Structure formats: C-alpha cells, structure tokens
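Archive transcription. Copying these from loose printouts into the bound notebook so they stop getting lost. Printout 1 of 2:
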Amino acid sequence: MQWVKIFSSVDDALARIKPGVTQLLVVHQKRICLARLNDEFFAVADKCTHNGESLCKGKINYLGEVVCPWHGYRFQLKTGRESAERSADLETFPIKQDETGFYIGL
C-alpha cells in the first residue's frame, strides 16, 4: 500500500473538510469521495456502483451513509457496503493521521 499525503496536518484537514459534507479528491488518477462525520474521516470510491454517478454530488445522511444523487443508493462510509444490497459495494481507502500529516492509503 502507498500512503499519499493529502493535507499537511490534521488541523488542516479539519479546517478544509466540513462535517457532513463530501469532497472530491483525485489521487493518482483515482476519484475518491472524502467525507467527514464529526471528527472522523472516511474515503470511498467516488463512482456509484449502480449507475456510475459521482457520490461527491450526493449527501451524507444521519446513518453515516453517502446517498447517490441519481437513484438514492446508500453506501456506508465506514465499510463501503450498499445498504440495501442492491448493488456492489464501494472500494474503501484507509486514512492515517500523525504529526507529519494526513494520508490516504492506495
């Protein structure tokens, strides 16, 4: 696994990614949907497995799921699992934070 630094510090990540909002990242030609719930971060593939829409255009619900804006498919941010098992699960990416920065694992 390769760790890619995406923010200079945890404080930088907290300031730039607001709670309950998604952010599109393109890291090594991969589209990644970065989301923050409270002070916890999650990273999943940005492409809905049902019809290919960008999940960064969707919303995060109270259950910790990102909801696809086209047909409402819901994916758990923690596991990538499609909540109703109607479509394939999303690829997830680990997040690592330390005193040297904020990283995503590819």
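Printout 2 of 2:
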Amino acid sequence: MTVVVRVRFRPRGNLYDYDAAAWPTLQRGDFVVVQTRFGPQVGEVVQVREQPPAGEQDAPADLEPVLRRATAHDLALRQLRQNKEVELLVNLRAKVRDLGRQERRYQRLRIVEVELSLDDRHMRVLYTDEDEDSPLGGAVRRLGQRLAGPRQVHWVRLGPRDAAKLSGGVGACGMPERCCSLFMHTFQSVSVRMAKVQNVSLGPHEIAGMCGRLRCCLRFEFAAYQEARATLPKERKRVRTPEGVGRVVAVHPLSQQVTVEIPDKGRLLFAGAEVQPVQPPCDGCPHQQPAG
C-alpha cells in the first residue's frame, strides 16, 4: 500500500498530495519538506491515508515524494522566509499603488500574497485584477523583479473566490470567518436558481459574498430544499383546499406548508397534504375537473 499525505503550506491554502512511502510513520500535524513547482517548501500534514497499488481502482497518479521530515532548522528558516514575505508584500503593494496613480490600468490590480521558497530562489506573487481581459503589464513585472532581486518571480493570477479565501475576514452573513477560509478546499458552481429554491432574496447584498460572487453557502442546503419542494405545488399554481380553490402565493419547504390566496377569504396557510392541484380547463379532456 502506498502512503499518501495531504499537505498544506498556508493556514487557508489548498491541499496537495505527496507520496510518503519512505516516511510511513508520518502523522497529522507533522511538518515535512516537499518539492513544488516553485521550489522546496515546508508544509503541514493534515491527512494521512493509504492508497491501493497502481493498477487498482482509485490508485493515485504519480506523486512527488516527501523529501524529509522538517527539522528545527527548516522551521526556523521557514519563519525567516515568512517574515521576509511580509516585507516584500507591503513594499510591492505600495509600488503597485503608486503605479496605479500614474496609469489607470493598474488601479484594479491587487497583490494578495507573496511567497518565498525555502531555498529563497523563487518568489511567487499571487494577485487579482478586476479587469479580467487585462494581461499583467510589463511595468508591474519589472517592479516585482526589482524587489525580488536574484530570485525567480512567478506571477499567479487568482479568481475572486480564491483571493477571498486567502485574505480571510468576516463572512457576509456575519460569521467570524468565511466558509471558504474555514473549511472549503474546492469551489463548486453556484446559480441564482439555488437562491430561488431556498426563498432567498435576490438582492445583491443577500446573495453575494465578500468576493462579489454568489455565496458558496447557497449550495450547502440546496439539495435539501429541492427535495422538500418536490411534493409541494409551485407559486402561482391553482390548487384546491379545504376552504376552496385559490392560487399559491408562497411555498414554505421546511415546514411543508403553502400560503394560498382564496377569493373573498384572503391568504390562508395550509399543509402541503391539504392542497391538490387544479387542472387547467381543456375542452374535451376526459380528465377535466369540475370548477370549484
């Protein structure tokens, strides 16, 4: 069996799989040194699992091996790199801000994070740009290279959700930490239909997260609401109730109730089992129901 560990390099960062066959005693919470596309890095093991041999179902793809357990020297070096990252981030943001005052195309560009490799040979710059069609200008690249010195600079453009995940902060709903930063590792598509099914107001402040996109949480309970709505009539449908025929004006999936507006009686609340659909009139139809 192949031992695979999931490693995280940042508290809110993504998880990456590495082959730990040479280090079978690794446990969650251990720190390891691994090779990445941007040089060696120290990461924290957040999960250890065994995979079946190659050729069997769910066998892992070729994975980079864990180089070694992180030593005290590695951890101290990592702390030095992180301190330097903060300095580089502050300086680069200030330079980009000054550049934005000279050229409007750079006013919407934001530097999210700066990461250094353990060997200090690589600098990765994570950034966002509200102008999705705008390529990264040469002026910004030159600024980054001057600050990086002899390091090789890698520019990585992030989407709004990834940027919000790394930035952290209070959620739009008031939670002390955003869902994407707290427990989400991947992003799935979210649609306005999910908000409609859950009777969420479609105002921008109600359905948009701090990233400016539809809130990820709209997907969390969508399936439950969809299942609860399956046995209830839709809004604006005519139904027969114990009080007469009316039109559905509101659906309450969680309580399995509907609000029906009945002429001369107003709006009344009924359990879903108490209402029956009224078929529209159709001349000659053998299933036509008598008018209520």
